[in-house]
Amino acid sequence: MKQRFPLLCSLILFLCTCASAQGEIRWTLNMNTDQILQTDKQVFTALEKDLVTFLNNQVWTDDRFEPDERIEATLFFTISEQTTKSAKGDGAQVAIPNAFKATVAIQSLRPVYATGEKTPVLNTLDKFVEFDYRQGEGIQYSEQSYLSDLGSVFAFYSYLILGLDYDTFSPLGGAPFFQKAQELYNRLPTNITNDTNNGWSAANKQRNRYFLMENITSPRMLPLRRAYYAYHRTGLDLMHEDLIAGRNNITLAIEDAQKANQAYPQTVYAQAFVDAKRDEIIEIYKGATGTEQNTVIQSMSRLDPSKSSAYRGIRSRSVPGRSASRSMGRRQ
């Protein structure tokens, strides 16, 4: 028995160390390499393992997260092609070893108080991920200096996920994490921020990481940031107790989001909001009054004009007396 006691203590210490090493975000990774034609894909198997290790074990805050408090996030990581360069003389393209291009889709979820349901907070698509990866090196990241492409990209999105999540629990509560994302950008080498193909460049007019960060931190978008708190904390979280009051607060939040969109049109940030909330909003307002429906249809059609017909469809699919839990739908 005496011999087992030190062993038991060591085991408990090991388990505690492993638990404490878990990060604040619990990631699910879906990796797709079907578009890559090379036959030896062992490198991608190693990359997938390194990504899972990095994403789930990296600690970003000083706050203590219990296992059931970790933020749920899903990453769809599609490697689209191997990076190429022009060969000398004949103009042909040759593959660059260990260099790839990828598309990344990210969604994060937040629990809705007292319902067992989850609501999407971030839903964004990034088409401009370029990276180098060498098997055995892992995914490197430092808060002091730039170390790797993938480390910087996923640190950036981790800070955004944390910032948006904290914004839903307290007004502008995510500010420290958005500041961290800004500091990360400031550490990037100039050759990276000047490259219009990799998603960090202000010169690229497409929807990229630079503009997502710029939008969130812009004073013009403060009404949308405040709307995240009203929509979630005083809206969804209240609906189990007072459906009418909760839905009214969501209506006010949507109107604030439209005010931000009017002050700063067509931002990546507003697009991420509507991509996350579109289906949920349609479900919530099926059982609303005609006045509420008209207000939301008008605001969301301006925020999300390409989907305006879907919002107008709220009227024809209204179900009087529909309960909050049924109207929102279950999101697991």
Output the keywords:
2 domains, 4-stranded mixed beta sheet, 17% strand, disordered N terminus, alpha+beta, disordered C terminus, 332 residues, 12 helices
Order of helices and strands: HEHEEEHHHHHHHHHH
Number of strands: 4
Rg over CA atoms? 22 Å
Indicate the percent of residues in helices.
Answer: 40-55%
Adjacency order of strands in the biggest sheet: 1-2-3-4
Mean pLDDT: 88
Low-confidence regions: 1-20, 318-332
The count of domains is 2
Largest sheet features: 4 strands, mixed
Described by the principal axes of the CA atoms, the overall outline is globular
Beta-strand fraction estimate = 15-25%
- Cα end-to-end separation: 45 Å
How many DSSP helices?
12
Descriptive overview:
With 332 residues, the chain is of the alpha+beta class. The protein has helices at residues 4-21, 42-57, 149-169, 175-187, 190-193, 209-217, 222-239, 243-263, 268-284, 290-303, 308-316, 324-328; strands spanning 25-32, 71-86, 93-111, 118-132. It has two domains: 21-85 and 95-217, no CATH class; 223-328, no CATH class. It contains twelve helices and four strands; from the N terminus they run αβαβββαααααααααα. The protein has a four-stranded mixed beta sheet. Helix 7 (222-239) packs antiparallel against helix 8. Residues 1-20 and 318-332 have low confidence and may be disordered.
Outline of this structure?
The chain is α+β, with helices and mostly antiparallel strands and about 325 residues long. Helix content is about 50%, strand content about 15%.
